[in-house]
Amino acid sequence: MLTAEPQTRPAPVQTSGSKGELKSWIGALNAVAVLTEQPGLTLAELCHQQAMIYPERPALVGEYEEFSYRSLSERMNFYAAWALAEGIEKGETISLLMGNCPEFAVIWLGLTQIGCTVALINSTLSANGVAHCMAAAESKYLIFGAVFSHVVEEALHENSATIKCWMQGTVAAKTFSNIDVKVAADSRKPSATDVALLIYTSGTTGMPKATKVTHGRLMEWSFWFAGMLNIQSDDRLYDCLPMYHSTGGVVAVGAMLAQGGAVVIRECFSASSFWDDIIDERCTIFMYIGELCRYLTQSAYDTADRAHSLRLCCGNGLRGDVWQVFQERFRIPNIIEFYAATEGSVSLYNCTGMRGAIGHVPPFLRHRFPVALIKIDAETGEALRDQLGFCQPCGIDEIGEAIGKISELDPMPSRKFDGYTNADASTRKILRNVFAQGDAWFRTGDLLREDAQGYYYFVDRLGDSFRWKGENVSSEEVASVISSCVGVNEAVVFGVSVPGFEGKAGMAVITTTGVFSFEVLTEILATRLPDYARPIFVRICNALEVTGTFKLKKHQLKDAGFLALRDGSTVWFFDRASARFVECDERLRQKIAQGIFARL
């Protein structure tokens, strides 16, 4: 068997945070070991067990409703009984479209306990996006919150399949007093390999893909983070992240429920009320994305900022410069940054407080968590291979795509790749014959670098997507919407860096005819795209340069960003105050370059 000769690397240097890192990793490994003692255990079953131990302890705390572990258990059984009475079969998919609230988690917990799969629909999508997601999940059923009734009506017109719908709130009025929930649930108990949830991701290209999350993967996430964060039954986690995402809707919820803790759920993030809420709810853990921490550092100083009980903040996307200001200003004892993909086999954790790093794998665990960075062709996105046909590993501080080894024999569900509902999309995410004949690795689509100490740092996204406001944006999807606007001939979309902001702001470069108008474009963007996906900048050009294979050349345009070019093009900026595009003159460019973008 031929194998590639890996590049020689110095051993990672131990840091002052090594003891804390060791404690966190051992805690996570010990917590996950529970799953070997109780194979097949599901999160729903665990919630029922916790209801026997902590019946009156709060489990899910919302602004207008609260579930103790006892009421959580009872309500889960209500939804299980409801699904049985409706004749929904084991293995069928039910789409769920709701905003952040405790009931969101209760519904999917109750339905998954009887073998149903629940597709968590992004609540910010327009009608065509909802229709696409339901079609991708092959879902015949939909539960939705009342506020989404108009979106659902439009989506049903775009989806040719027959969808049976229930508006959350009306179903609560039904009763199933004659149903033996325990016997019925036991007869349909799912296995660890059954799909519990479908969570949507933009991936690197195209429309959102439905990622399969099995019960085994869900449980591993829950116990892993419970151990990594040393969660206790008296901990209270503040969760204002979107619950249709894996971090806010599954990891935050599952980790707390696994240990009998409480999840304080908020519909959205508010910088002005954040610390008062954290203090009033006696929260000890905050699950973040980096952008939220940046918003907090820009807020006005208040003596209450440090009167909290937070012992830990955990999340991803916290930039190094924001990290320091955030931790020092608000006296945050500990920050754990992590990097992971919902569907992938790459997980990294920074438990030592190394500012700006997204993760670090202790040397003694590298064999259990195989992650590699490989050299990539910047133009094509293809992996570069040596004379033997194997991929080339990156050296120290060399930028490359992060990949994670897939092993069907590994007992850990996260080492497997369950893929998407779309088989072709699943195939494209697997890289084969990487370092040995027959091996398989998951492609993250993310460019990282690793320093001499073994710390990983995020650099950029590979391909046609970028991250803005904590969301992955598909360039292809946005360009397709813009191209549908009357007067637009061609459109190319990408992300551009903006001083003082995490991620990249959307920028569209278009060629137009005389009938084009920004008023029409603005209306189309508002009706067909969620807020985070709408471009902030638009450059109007006379022509777009293409390669010999007629692919648009983006690199020069991406490098220029919102700067002026000597090609007769004009750049326009979306002014939120007036809700219209205004020409980006030199004075406005200087303001943006100086970091005044947030106030604009």
Q: What is the name of the CATH class of the domain at 467-599?
A: Alpha Beta
Global outline: globular
Q: Report the biggest beta sheet as strand number plus sense, adding barrel if it closes.
A: 8 strands, mixed
Structural class by SSE content = alpha/beta
Separation, N- and C-terminal Cα atoms? 59 Å
Oligomer: single chain
CATH topology of the domain at 467-599: GMP Synthetase, Chain A, domain 3
For the largest beta sheet, what order do the strands appear in spatially? 2-1-10-9-11-12-13-14
Classified in CATH, the superfamily of the domain at 467-599 is ANL, C-terminal domain
- Taking all Cα atoms into account, the compactness measure Rg is 24 Å
Beta-strand share of residues? 15-25%
Number of DSSP helical runs? 18
Helix content: 25-40%
User: What is the overall pLDDT average?
Assistant: 87
Q: What would you say this structure looks like, in words?
A:
The model is unreliable at 1-16 and 170-185 (pLDDT under 50). The strands form 5 sheets. Strands 2-1-10-9-11-12-13-14 form an 8-stranded mixed sheet. A 6-stranded mixed sheet has the order 6-5-3-4-7-8, with helices on both faces. Helix 3 packs parallel to helix 10 and helix 9 packs across helix 10. By secondary structure, it is of the alpha/beta class. The protein starts with 17 loop residues before the first helix and ends in a 7-residue tail after the last helix. Helix 13 links the parallel strand 12 (312-316) and strand 13. It contains 18 helices and 27 strands. It is globular, with a radius of gyration of 24 Å. Among the domains are: 67-189, 3-Layer(aba) Sandwich (Rossmann fold); 467-599, ANL, C-terminal domain (GMP Synthetase, Chain A, domain 3, 2-Layer Sandwich).
